[in-house]
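Anyone else keep sequences and structure tokens together like this?

Example one:
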Amino acid sequence: MFRRQHTIGIILVALSALLWSFGGSMARSITVESSWTIVFWRSYFATVFLLVFMMMREGPEKTLQLFGAMGWPGLSVALCFAVASTCFVVALSHTTVANILLIQAGVPLLAALLAWLLFGEKSNTATWIAIAAVVVGISVMTSDTLSGKISPLGDGLAILIALAFAIATVLTRRHAHVQMLPAVTLGTTIAAIASMFLTTSYAVSAQDLGWLAAFGMINLGLGLAVFTMGARLVPAALAALIGTLEPILGPIWVWLSHAEIPSSRTLLGGAIVFAALLTHLLLEWWRTPKPTR
């Protein structure tokens, strides 16, 4: 039974990474010029999907209880996610999908660095070496901004996304009662409300509305729902390891569908980040007790 649940968890986490990996390709298929219009519709569709999913799974009364039990840590995680999901859409107008996703790949190690800076959590020597390598890799990737080929705003927003996710990771780890799904749903709600005041028009074509619905419901909403179901069935290190499928596959889909080719610096910096991250995660997975039944 335990092995079966473990296998189901692996499949669900892998499916969530696959769904998330299509985000860049979906965004590139949308012809809406205003990033804030895209943020609004994506966040709106994601909120509707997640609320319906939670009420079907938990019931209306339990759903309200979950929102009420989040407290300030849940609100903080929600704000982090609102910032990250908004910056993702805006960053796509200024940099490549590969830059955004490969910088995000370093989130687990950035979280370890923040945990040390904010709470004094100790890390072993291998983790510090991996953190240093991630910093080097991100520096190589963002050095494209010096050549003028990539906007500094785009890579700056990509770094902000990674920091927001890293903060959310640390908060979730230190406050185990924080439920990811209601916190993220609140985050998409905040993003939708904020973008309402920043967009100049809600009008989109029928084709774009279809892409926006998929961008919000399938890429964001369903991806999160599947991840929350799978992540509780596998060790955190393994979930993070499987999650690296997203930054691997994301640039491939955009290359195949929109001929967006990463620069040599992005590939070099991404390779450094991945080498550090995968080595770190594999070591963590090796240290984690394995299922025996």
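And example two:
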Amino acid sequence: LNHDVMVVTGVTDGCASQIASGAVNPGEWNTTIGTTLVIKGVTKKPVIDPLGRLYNHRHPDGYFMPGGASNTGADWVTEKFSDHLKSLNEKALQLIPTGYMSWPLCQQGERFPFIAPDAKGIEPEGLSSEQLFTANMEGVAYIERYAYEMIEQLSGEKTVIIYTAGGGSNSDAWTKIRSNVLSLPVYKMKYVTGAMGAAILASSHTYFNSVQEAVKASTQIEKVIKPEKGFIEQYNKYYHLFITTLVKKGYIRVP
């Protein structure tokens, strides 16, 4: 290498993707929905979880980047619904909220946001493919909300903004469901890859003065989906019914 080339250290692929997503300030979090649901964010202090559901990376500017990975995700989409995704997503926008209690856990056991080795997915009977597809998206959103509530309880810090990435973020119907379940706007950047995050990080203290400054200059918002009052109220009711269902099954243990 030429002596003028600056060499800097990097981060894990997950943290790099988080940086590319835009979640680099305290209170900002990223949910990636791929095969599994992965949540990573920024807090002022490390989040200590006695049950080990969360782990912490160190933020380049001194904060902390806690995160966790669920066994729930979007693997069920590929397994059962990959042939008609466009029409299913269009129909889902007309069906929400469904009110069905569905949890598309494809394997046995959950590890985040709660630990339940014996947990099994929940699939209501008698639903059309469109109804089940929509209810499954809602179930994942309920798991996501429970994760953020658990994180806020452990950290004592408020979740302010949710950024999103992964294949699941390509569905406007799913993002709309999640925004209303979470009662928060959901942001999606145009380029959310580990390579993009690594490039931003490399420039953060070479060309720019901080990661925040580098992200602001280097990322583009592709879309923002905001919650709607009517949907928020309905989903709040269905969310609590969903959690009650998991408590009754013994998957979530109430102190």
